[in-house]
Amino acid sequence: MELHVIINGRKDLAEQLYQQLREAIDSGRLAAGAQLPPSRLLAAQLGVSRKTVSDTYATLTYEGLLVGKIGRGTFVNSRTPPTERLQTATDLACAANLAKWQALPSPMHHPTRDSALRYEFLGGATSRHQFPQDEWRRCTQDALRRIAQNSGLYSQTEGLLALRSAIAGHIAFSRGVKCSADDIVVTNGAQQALDLIARVVLEPGSIVAMEDPGYTPARQLFMAMGANVIGVPVDDQGIQVERIPDGARLIYVTPSHQFPLGMPMSQARREALLARAFELGAMVIEDDYDSEFRYEGRPTDSLQNMDTRGVVTYVGTFSKTLLPELRLGYAVLPPALYGAVLKAKQLTDQHSSTLPQWALAKFISEGYLLKHIRRCHSVYAGRRERILQRLAGDLAPWFEAVPTVAGFHMAALCKVPVNIALLMQLARQVDVGLYPLDVFFHDTPVRPGLIIGFGAIETLDIDPALDKVRDILQQIG
User: Which family does the record claim for this protein (predicted)?
Assistant: First the structure.
């Protein structure tokens, strides 16, 4: 790599070189330990004599800025750079806006690998032991070969046709979604899909109706865009449609597996929701985040399948079926939104990375995804059953499970007053990660309890972890 130095004219060459190298070292552009090019190489690069470069290096070495190491070369010496006062957030004209963003909580922030506890009941996380490493490796190798053959140009903003076609076939088969590849935009996770839809639908002050309790990152996203987010209570049939406010421009729901409580939306409520959205001229976001894992009852169609008026946008993700780190999601868009969302995607990031797109397209088309889902379904079903048994057994004095038929988390509501914050604190001390329900409530009264994820915790770890939870509950009363 060439060192960035610019020489103007033929006068004061040594002085020009000295000043530029000194400024680069003082500013930190040339960090301590960085190796400078040999004098002969830098002289040839700049079109000056080798003596000019050697003399400059010697001067900087004398001043302690450079150090020569015999047989190795010339390096930037370790030193404390001069400090200048940098602008703080309060100095800036945008201080209020920065404070607003910094104040946003992170209720679903996943721990890092180093900070994760031995027993994690984190919702939305999957077990790395279930991930099909060999199949994914073969698909990634195929993707690398395809990329090596490409033209070096940007890819399609909407996503690779191969992946969009594979997604269309998969969700038609597994969720009854009515779409073709031309209705799909591939995104960086479901969260970007929500962001793009909100960008083109909302303005500051727009009313958004969403389930309460509900998915907090979606609520925070809409609020950050200046929307007036109104929580609509849910009951055992889902969102209470009659309480969706007049003037709502966007309605966000999780009908197949209500987040975080878990119950599915009834057929009658789905029909009422579609009618209400059409009446308001509102768009509905159907976030179908983990309903491919179903354990009881007859499968239900997606809300999008029932939509005959083009008011539903179906959002899906592969973070729950594969790995959160994959960061690939998608939106199935009605015709009214497609062009605007595509433009927003183009302006945001041009397109999602093509390497994982090619790999995922092959992974789906080769049948690996369905095979993986079936394998995980069996594992998750066993974990779910064991947690339900414990909640109905020795944990029954404190908690009751909310009936849920899909996904890989459940809600456990308090039957008696429990200090959830203290329970979580004491659980962390014995390496158990517990997570509260209260962070998902907005306008409706909080129902205290826990959200219990069983995607990341291993089956054999469930009983030891819940034994520790039981013991803590007995201690704190």
Answer: In the C-terminal section; belongs to the class-I pyridoxal-phosphate-dependent aminotransferase family.
Please, what's the b/e burial string for 353-368 (b: 16 or more CB within 10 A of its CB; e: otherwise)? ebebbbbbbbbbbeeb
- What are the residue boundaries of the structural domains of the chain, listed by start? 13-76, 119-127+371-476, 133-366
Judge whether residue 272 has pLDDT over 60. yes
Q: What global pTM score does this model have?
A: 0.83
How far apart are alpha carbons 56 and 51 in whole angstroms? 8
pLDDT tens digits, one per residue of 306-342: 999 999 999 999 988 888 888 999 999 999 999 999 9
Asked whether the beta carbons of 198 and 227 are under 8 A apart, the reply is yes
Distance CA 198, CA 222 (A): 7
CA–CA distance, 112 with 57 (Å, rounded to integer): 44
Measured between alpha carbons, how far is 299 from 173 in angstroms, rounded to an integer?
12
Beta bridge partners of 231: 210
Distance between CA atoms of residues 356 and 323, nearest Å: 12
What tokens were used for 197?
Answer: 């839809």
**Phi/psi at 294 (5° precision):** -120, 135
Asked if pLDDT for residue 85 goes beyond 80, the answer is no
What number does CATH give the domain 119-127+371-476? 3.90.1150.10
Residues 37 and 3: beta-carbon distance below 8 Å: yes
CATH code given to domain 13-76: 1.10.10.10
Radius of gyration of the chain (CA): 28
Amino acid at 199: R
Would you tell me how many other CB atoms lie within 10 Å of the CB of residue 97? 12
Half-sphere exposure of 151 (CA within 13 A, CB side): 4
Element (H, E) at 286: strand 283-287
How buried is residue 220: exposed, middle or buried, by Cβ count under 10 Å (0-12/13-18/19+)? middle
- Beta strands in 14-71, from DSSP E residues, in sequence order: 66-69
Would you say the CATH fold of 133-366 matches that of 119-127+371-476? no
Strands 329-332 and 409-414: unpaired
Determine how β-strand 66-69 pairs with β-strand 184-187.
Answer: unpaired
> What tokens were used for 462?
């469930």
Reported as a single tens digit per residue, the pLDDT across 220-266 is 999 999 999 999 999 999 999 999 999 999 999 999 999 999 999 99
Supply the DSSP string of 75-88, one letter for each residue: EEPP------PPPP
Residues in the chain: 477
